[in-house]
């Protein structure tokens, strides 16, 4: 293997990006696969020496995502790993996530691709590789349409930037780990990194934004966030997320899903079940690209190993076809492949989602889920409920549970879902966190999907909402009137699962979540949501006049009760 380290590649504005180039010692020209991130190209080189580690092993490092260098080179590709501007060995400045407040990583990808295409060892055919951040920027680069970028392969990308930071309006803490390095995650190889918000806002507007966030009880009761806001110089990229709790131009302008319609080259998308925060964004981005496309929805566990070694055979088949012209039949196979949990088998389809019927499962007294709604009024069927004190005074997470009887037959579900909830709280805001489980006959539960909604973000866009997928614009926050019964529509992230005969469907509702349960251990460091800082009593109404229910996507052939 020939290794050219610290190659400085010029960009159109005079900045040079640093790259390492791995390739075979061959006189024949070869295609190149480009990987680009802020996590440091030296960290990516560990794929040559560190065996892959799975969560929750402490050696799992979320930033080693560029792919298996040896395998890529042995397949006859040059593997090019570059540092984004302002990080690692690259010059320049990174302003905001994905440089959305600066030059823009899409433009840099254009220049990298076209530089690589004319190198004496390159045959002019370029693709891109890598997961998560590496996958996200592929769409931004393809949207710029560099002539020699022939295809992309995106696994686990974060294509909706608001969804990277907030789930249903609830702040997600994981991006801090990936940017700053926490809980075993190495974070960004910081050089010259700036907050987009601090760069764009006037001093007065910035001070007002800071004061507003510091007044939020959720932030007041979480010391780390007080530190982030008070000492921004050490938290530039994470700060942008914390100070922007609402969706809008700040996120939309830099989101790959916004630019996906410009992508006209072949695009392959993959995401793993259990990664709800990327599943729906992946599906939306796949639906918008214009060229030949494929979609894989992969089996749990939710996180790939690090260093990233998985999915390489399918990725290399994709590039053998589009970059080398090898007719290996990959385009004759189904456009969509999804792993059906519960049955533990693959399904192929020509589109997503499959044909389903939306079936309600009603919340009933004594914590039951049932096909039929409650016939009694609230007078005779009073609400369920739970109380949650702030974590400043308790370690207990309050919750309420509903569960079906043992199923009489297999029930196959595939698609997104929703929980329609009638609730009253005694404060002006809370979190609603829904978790759906498959419970086996021995009582062991397996998490199937999740849903999140901040009560103040309950506004619905009816024109964009569909059965099983309520659409919240998240462009405003409206305080809740205490004790008023309000209907909330909570989106459940897309899933595919067979609930087997004898199993039960379990739904849990809370406003906080466990930091240490079995599923949490499979997720990235700090991969939980900002707990509610308000002491709140929650009443959940599920009577004749308030028919709270789950709306679930049952594959059409299996809708009989």
TrEMBL record:
Keywords annotated in UniProt: Hydrolase
PANTHER family named among the record's database cross-references: COCE_NOND FAMILY, PUTATIVE (AFU_ORTHOLOGUE AFUA_7G00600)-RELATED, PEPTIDASE S9 PROLYL OLIGOPEPTIDASE
The Xaa-Pro dipeptidyl-peptidase C-terminal domain, residue ranges: 316-551
Name of the protein: CocE/NonD family hydrolase
Upper lineage: Bacteria, Pseudomonadati, Pseudomonadota, Alphaproteobacteria, Hyphomicrobiales
Top-level taxon in the UniProt lineage: Bacteria
Family annotation (NCBIfam families): CocE_NonD
GO MF entry, a single one: dipeptidyl-peptidase activity
SUPFAM superfamilies noted in UniProt: alpha/beta-Hydrolases, Galactose-binding domain-like
């Amino acid at each position: 293997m020939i290794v050219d380290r610290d190659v400085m590649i010029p960009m159109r504005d005079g900045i040079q990006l640093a790259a390492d180039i791995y390739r075979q010692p061959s006189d024949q020209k070869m295609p190149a696969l480009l990987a680009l991130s802020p996590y440091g190209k030296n960290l990516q080189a560990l794929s040559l020496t560190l065996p892959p580690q799975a969560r929750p092993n402490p050696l799992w490092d979320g930033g080693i995502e560029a792919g298996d260098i040896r395998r890529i080179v042995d397949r006859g590709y040059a593997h090019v790993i570059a540092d984004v501007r302002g990080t690692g060995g690259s010059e320049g400045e990174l302003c905001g996530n994905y440089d959305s407040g600066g030059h823009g990583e899409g433009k840099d990808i254009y220049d990298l691709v076209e530089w690589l295409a004319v190198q004496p060892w390159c045959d002019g055919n370029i693709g891109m590789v890598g997961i998560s951040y590496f996958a996200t920027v592929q769409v931004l680069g393809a949207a710029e349409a560099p002539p020699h970028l022939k295809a992309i392969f995106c696994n686990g990308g974060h294509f909706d930037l608001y969804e990277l930071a907030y789930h249903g309006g609830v702040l997600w803490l994981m991006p801090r780990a990936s940017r700053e390095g926490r809980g075993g995650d190495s974070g960004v190889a910081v050089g010259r990194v700036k907050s987009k918000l601090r760069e764009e806002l006037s001093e007065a507007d910035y001070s007002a934004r800071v004061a507003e966030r510091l007044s939020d009880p959720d932030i007041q009761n979480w010391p780390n966030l007080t530190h982030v806001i008070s000492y921004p110089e050490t938290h530039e990229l994470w700060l942008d997320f914390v100070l922007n709790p609402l969706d809008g131009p700040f996120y939309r302008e830099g989101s790959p899903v916004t630019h996906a319609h410009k992508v006209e080259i072949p695009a392959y998308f993959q995401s793993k079940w259990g990664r709800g925060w990327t599943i729906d964004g992946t599906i939306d981005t796949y639906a918008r690209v214009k060229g030949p496309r494929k979609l894989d929805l992969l089996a749990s566990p939710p996180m790939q190993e690090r260093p990233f070694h998985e999915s390489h055979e399918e990725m290399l088949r994709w590039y053998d076809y589009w970059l080398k012209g090898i007719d290996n039949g990959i385009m004759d196979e189904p456009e969509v492949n999804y792993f059906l949990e519960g049955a533990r088998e693959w399904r192929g389809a020509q589109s997503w989602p499959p044909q389903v019927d939306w079936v309600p499962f009603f919340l009933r007294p004594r914590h039951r889920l049932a096909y039929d709604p409650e016939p009694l009024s609230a007078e005779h069927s009073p609400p369920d409920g739970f109380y949650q004190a702030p974590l400043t005074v308790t370690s207990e997470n309050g919750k309420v549970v509903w569960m079906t009887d043992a199923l009489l037959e297999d029930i196959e579900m595939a698609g997104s879902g929703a929980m329609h909830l009638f609730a009253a709280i005694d404060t002006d805001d809370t979190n609603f966190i829904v978790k759906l489980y498959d419970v086996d006959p021995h009582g062991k539960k397996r998490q199937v999907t999740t849903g999140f909604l901040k009560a103040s973000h309950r506004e619905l866009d009816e024109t964009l909402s569909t059965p099983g997928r309520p659409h919240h614009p998240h462009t405003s926050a409206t305080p809740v009137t205490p004790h008023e019964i309000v209907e909330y529509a909570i989106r459940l992230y897309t899933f595919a699962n067979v609930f087997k005969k004898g199993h039960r469907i379990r739904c849990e509702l809370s406003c906080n979540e466990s930091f240490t349960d079995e599923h949490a251990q499979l997720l990235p460091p700090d991969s939980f949501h900002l707990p509610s800082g308000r002491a709140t009593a929650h009443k959940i109404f599920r009577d004749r006049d308030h028919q709270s229910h789950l709306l679930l996507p049952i594959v059409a052939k299996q809708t009989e009760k």
